[in-house]
Amino acid sequence: MIDEIGRWLLPNASQIPHPGSTSFITTGATTIGALATLAGSVASPQRIGATAFNHLEELSLHWLAALFELPAEFQGVYSSGGSTANLVALGGARQAALERRGMDPARDGLRRCCRLYTTALTHHTIQRAAAVLGMGRSAVVPIEHDEQGCMRPDALRRQLRADAHSGDVPVAVIANAGTTSTGAIDPLRAIGEIARAHGVWFHVDGAYGLPGILDPRVKPLYDGLALADSVVVDPHKWLGAPVGIGATFVRDRRILNRAFTQEHADYLEGSCSIDDVQHSMESLGIPYADFGVELSAPARGAVVWALLREIGVQGLRERVCRHNSMARRVAERARAHPRLQLMQEPTLSICCFRYVSDVPLDLDALNQGIHRELLRNGRNMPSTARIAGALAIRPCFIGARTTEAHADALVDEVIEVGDRLLAEQGFRAFEPSSGAVRLAVPTPGGCA
Ligand SMILES: *Cc1c(COP(=O)(O)O)cnc(C)c1O
Question: pLDDT class for 281, splitting at 50, 70, 90?
């Protein structure tokens, strides 16, 4: 069996762990994280019990909160990733908003229309969380953003004021600490103050970008994070943990307990308080299953503990700074090269740029072609994103094994492939007939 895994599975697995892969916001796990995952899956099925694993669940959540400078009272809970972490946070927000109006949505369901406020650049899992929580995707009210992708606080204030007498319940304002497309960070202090002034829960989605706070060059952009009522981060992104680890932080986990309680269960009766335990199974330990939507779940804390122990705060800071520098290096080269265009100044470790030419052609199709060829060559594998409607090549540098040489090789290859595609097929295929740009989409049968 082990032989078959080696012979068939691994050679046909994902290219994502390749150090030249800079696609999406996902990367190969580092060794210690993979080992700790294996250890937990064998030695600690479930995160329950007065075990070392249950202890590390809490310790590592404290470490993450301290590392990212969350207020001291913040408490966390792990889940499978940013999607679930956002769902859990917004479940808390929904509970808080409706309790304040004398209702209990966890017990009685939703009896009022709700609204959530965020920009269109927010991760689409927020919409799904709104749907799952019974508020509906249409509860998400889009707030205007600027060209950098940052929410306009004045637009938020206007919308909250306009909605104040609508009868709907304003459940949360959701800010991004690193959007998925470009890594933009919303003005957290301004947004947080407006949310507070209106008595609305302030949620910060830092699934990707929260570790950016470790880079002194961008740290000022996190000013106002302390105003948050909930924050999420994905250790399986920039921290290099194996996939399956997100974290939600709130000021007081009791709100999550009320939002996600399973009520009483007969089979859990008789387990005693954690102070009085002689055997690991006499206590469930801290009841994480009561703070979210998972009951059976792996012990994820040991993984986060192991990877933080391995590289330490300074090691992680250096990694984050290196990745942010790589995005800046790509930006610099895109600015300097006549056939590259920087689509947006990087904030964190994402840089959106594209190949351009002054012959009139469909640049989206050309860049799509370049991207496809990069994937097929298998050396430098970014993903793409649309920036204000235009297709960009989008490397996101988070891989622990990805170095500046990979950033340079990616830019070199984009230029080389772009030049070749132009020379080979671009010109004739893209040539406009009468000033109007004709797209390079082959028509069936090749009719004129
Ligand atoms: C990746 C991401 C998510 C979703 O996280 P998963 O771990 O993929 O579920 C949510 N929000 C942001 C900002 C992200 O970058």
Answer: confident
User: At CA 426, angle to CA 420 and CA 431, rounded to 5?
Assistant: 155
Distance 123 CA to ligand 1 centre (A): 7
CATH number among 2.40.50.100, 3.30.70.20, 3.40.50.2000, 3.40.640.10, domain 30-311: 3.40.640.10
Q: pLDDT digit string (tens) for 34-83?
A: 999 999 999 999 898 999 999 999 999 999 999 999 999 999 999 999 99
The domain locations on the chain are 30-311, 312-424
Q: Is the domain defined by 312-424 classed in CATH 3.30.300.20?
A: no
Q: What region does 429 belong to: left with phi over 0, alpha with psi -120 to 50, or beta?
A: alpha
* Residue 206 alpha carbon, nearest atom of ligand 1: 13
The number of CA neighbours under 13 Å toward the Cβ of 238 is 33
pLDDT digits (tens, 9 = 90+) for 103-149: 999 999 999 999 999 999 999 999 999 999 999 999 999 999 999 99
- Could you give the residue ranges of the DSSP H alpha helices within 271-362? 301-336
Probe target for ligand 1 pocket from 24, 78, 80, 83, with the most ligand atoms within 8 Å of CB: 83
Distance from Cα 82 to the centre of ligand 1, integer Å: 4
Q: How far is the CA of 248 from the centre of ligand 1 (A)?
A: 12
Q: Which residues line ligand 1 (CB under 6 A)?
A: 25, 81-83, 86, 123, 125, 176, 180, 205, 207-208, 234, 246
Neighbouring C-alpha atoms within 13 Å toward the C-beta of 412: 9
